[in-house]
Amino acid sequence: MALNIGLLGKKIGMTQVFADDGEAVPVTVIQAGPCTVVGTRTVERDGYSALVLGFDEKPMRLANKAEIGAVKNGGKPQRFIREIRLSADEVAKYQVGQIIGPTDVFAEGAALDVEGTSKGKGYQGVIKRHHMSGMTRAHGTHEYFRHGGSIGCRLTPQRVHKGKRMAGQMGNEKVSVQNLQLFKILADENCILVRGSIPGAKNEYVVVTKAATRTAYKRKGVGKEEVRSKNPLKASKKAAAGRG
After folding, report:
1. pTM higher than the cut 0.85
2. How far is CA 56 from the centre of its chain?
3. Domain enclosing residue 132, as ranges
């Protein structure tokens, strides 16, 4: 398990910004903080070490006893609380009640992992849920255009295999997207701009952590010399477009 610090946040929506070289970059705006350290988990007491973060303050009049008890050490009830697994040395750096913002954790250009809940699509068939092609619309086909087809095995093993792709609930599940670029930090608004899209609808809560598999973001296909075509016709078209 990768023990990386992160923040809780809320997906605001998508927009586009321009890089220094003029590239139009699609980004997702995430309000990452301010997060409150609600509590800590220690190996001696809990068997593991973690940091308990809270995000989005909730009025005391709307909080129930469980939410009030979660912040009994001080602070206000939080709408979104999650544990971030860290080493004991990292947990010792934070105090209960401390406020953490994006500039305290992240740096521009870093690689991030974002975890969220995907949009719920309800009960869907196999064509939308699993991208099956369906039946042909020939004269001999009747009422089977979007059916899933046969699902079982006859004598052996006389059951439906586990994991069989069938109709059912689509979406509304935890999804993690790895190795996204932190394009820019808006410190005054406690927002970060992440290149690309992330799971979930607008105003959904997300967990943003440092990437588990790499320390720096590296975009595929960037930095390599473009292979020049030997076709003179293609070369002339590129030259006319100013890309030669």
Report:
1. no
2. 19
3. 121-170
